[in-house]
């Protein structure tokens, strides 16, 4: 309210500025009806007395002094003339006292002094009031007209919005001398409060405020989610998978009749992972075949991570991952692919791990026989057969073409010369249905003769040749080593001719 009054006072001062001249003040005098005004001259009391003073209102004389005072009848009792300076007091002002006042003063022996000024007599304002054509509006759709009324004279009008002066613009119009304010397509910032400031040179005042109700929106809609998180577990607060999606809210203003929709907020409901498993395309994981391991689980699986024997899986040349790591494919199994494979399935809320032990079935291969190559009659010997095979191979022993035993270990006690020969170990894998063999030569010698009979040696050679021939017929291969050393017999009392000593080291073949 104080700011409004200041504005009005400034307006009143500005509106009263005019020009005076001579011994009277330059600025006009402003007074209210019924008040008293003093027309003060700039004359100082002279050394010589005034011999003539004349005051006029327009062309009409007010008072003339030429030794005697002559006062116009209508000013009797209303004026006082101050003889020392020539100033004039005018009382009980009326509106018709407004006009130009002039004075002429003559001193003895001095040039005449003249001056003029204007007096404005105003009726003070009263009953200032502001009204509005409407106070309930819709933003951008409504216009309003504010009216300011007041009694008084020479009134000026100023509109205030809050503490700021309202000025004309493309939406704001000031008409009827500023007493009418029109706002077109109101905005929310036009709500006020509006005050009308009324002033004239002798008074000023401000109306009571008017506040406009301007409906707007909706706008700036913000959708928030309690317990906000990126993913929600199925069953939490009874949330179901079907409730996943983008949610928006829509606001409606029944005054503006406008709708506004918020930005969507995503709600993702996930089923916790359980029951992870790894399944192969076949349980007969035989070396050389292709096989796939499939990793899956119940629930919402986001990622799958494979490991082998507790370490991150490094893909070998025969491995590939498909379908977002769901399928681990081996295009040709190798024995080095055997191991424990684990697949960890996860989503942002849970995880589960499944394991699968992959055993690559292969063999038999690398068949080996260990045992003596030469013993004496009457001694015992043991031959052991081994092969690389998964599952373990079964073994069959053959001596000189005749099956003699079914076990990895063959033992013979109290040997005689007939036990000499080529011992064949045949290893077989019941799943791969593959066989592989090795041959071991054994010489049984007579302590007395120091060697084998010619018949025993011939039998060993014939057996080896038969086996070699059989290996060639089935597409296999064999290695035959026969080393015959003619050694001079040790000294003996027996003068009979001694037979040469034959040393049979080994004979091996494999049927692939």
UniProtKB/TrEMBL annotation:
Domain Ig-like residue range list: 124-213, 264-357, 364-445
Signal peptide segment: 1-20
Superkingdom, natural source: Eukaryota
Residue intervals passing through the bilayer: 456-480
Entries under InterPro entries matching the protein: Ig-like_dom, Ig-like_dom_sf, Ig-like_fold, Ig_sub, Ig_sub2, Ig_V-set, IgSF_CEA-related, Immunoglobulin_dom
Region named Disordered: 484-512
Alphabetical list of CDD domains matching this protein: Ig
Record flagged with keyword Signal: yes
Keywords, ordered alphabetically: Disulfide bond, Glycoprotein, Immunoglobulin domain, Membrane, Signal, Transmembrane, Transmembrane helix
Gene3D superfamilies: Immunoglobulins (2.60.40.10)
A Pfam family it matches: ig
Residue spans of biased composition, Polar residues class: 503-512
Protein name in UniProt: Ig-like domain-containing protein
């Amino acid at each position: 309210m104080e700011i409004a009054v200041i504005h009005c006072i400034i307006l009143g001062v500005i509106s009263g500025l005019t020009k005076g001249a001579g011994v009277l003040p330059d600025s006009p005098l402003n007074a209210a009806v019924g008040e008293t005004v003093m027309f003060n001259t700039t004359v100082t009391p002279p050394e010589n007395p005034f011999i003539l003073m004349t005051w006029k209102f327009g062309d009409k004389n007010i008072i003339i002094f030429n030794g005697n005072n002559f006062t116009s009848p209508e000013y009797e009792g209303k004026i006082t003339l101050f003889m020392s300076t020539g100033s004039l007091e005018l009382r009980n002002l009326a509106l018709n006292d407004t006009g130009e006042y002039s004075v002429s003063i003559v001193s003895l022996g001095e040039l005449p002094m003249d001056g003029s000024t204007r007096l404005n007599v105003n009726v003070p304002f009263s009953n200032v009031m502001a009204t509005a054509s409407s106070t309930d509006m819709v933003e951008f759709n409504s216009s309003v007209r504010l009216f300011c009324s007041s009694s008084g004279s020479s009134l000026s009008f100023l509109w205030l919005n809050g503490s700021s002066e309202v000025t004309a613009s493309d939406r704001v119009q000031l008409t009827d001398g500023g007493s009418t304010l029109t706002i077109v397509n109101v905005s929310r910032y036009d709500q006020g409060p509006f005050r009308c400031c009324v002033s004239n040179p002798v008074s000023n005042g401000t109306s009571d405020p008017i506040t406009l109700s301007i409906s707007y929106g909706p706008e700036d809609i913000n959708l928030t989610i309690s317990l906000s998180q990126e993913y929600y577990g199925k069953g939490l607060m009874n949330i179901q998978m079907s409730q996943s999606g983008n949610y928006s809210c829509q606001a409606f203003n029944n005054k503006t009749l406008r709708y506004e929709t918020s930005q969507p907020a995503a709600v993702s409901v996930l089923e916790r992972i359980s029951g992870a498993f790894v399944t192969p395309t076949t349980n007969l994981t035989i070396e050389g075949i292709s096989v796939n391991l499939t990793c899956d689980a119940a629930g919402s699986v986001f990622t799958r991570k494979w490991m082998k024997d507790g370490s991150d899986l490094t893909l070998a040349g025969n491995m590939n991952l498909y379908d977002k790591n769901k399928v681990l494919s081996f295009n040709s199994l190798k024995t080095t692919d055997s191991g424990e494979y684990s697949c960890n399935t996860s989503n942002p809320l849970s995880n589960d791990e499944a394991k699968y032990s992959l055993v690559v079935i292969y063999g038999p291969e690398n068949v080996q026989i260990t045992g003596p190559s030469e013993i004496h009659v009457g001694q015992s010997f043991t031959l052991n057969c081994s092969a690389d095979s998964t599952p373990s191979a079964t073994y069959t022993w053959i001596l000189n073409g005749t099956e003699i035993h079914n076990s990895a270990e063959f033992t013979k006690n109290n040997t005689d010369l007939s036990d000499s020969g080529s011992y064949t170990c045949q290893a077989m894998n019941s799943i791969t249905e593959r066989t592989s063999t090795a041959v071991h030569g054994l010489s049984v010698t007579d302590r007395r003769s120091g060697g084998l009979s010619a018949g025993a040696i011939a039998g060993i050679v014939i057996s080896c040749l038969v086996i070699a021939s059989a290996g060639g017929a089935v597409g296999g291969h064999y290695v035959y080593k026969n080393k015959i050393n003619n050694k001079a017999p040790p000294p003996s009392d027996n003068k009979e001719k001694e037979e040469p000593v034959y040393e049979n080291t080994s004979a091996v073949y494999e049927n692939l």
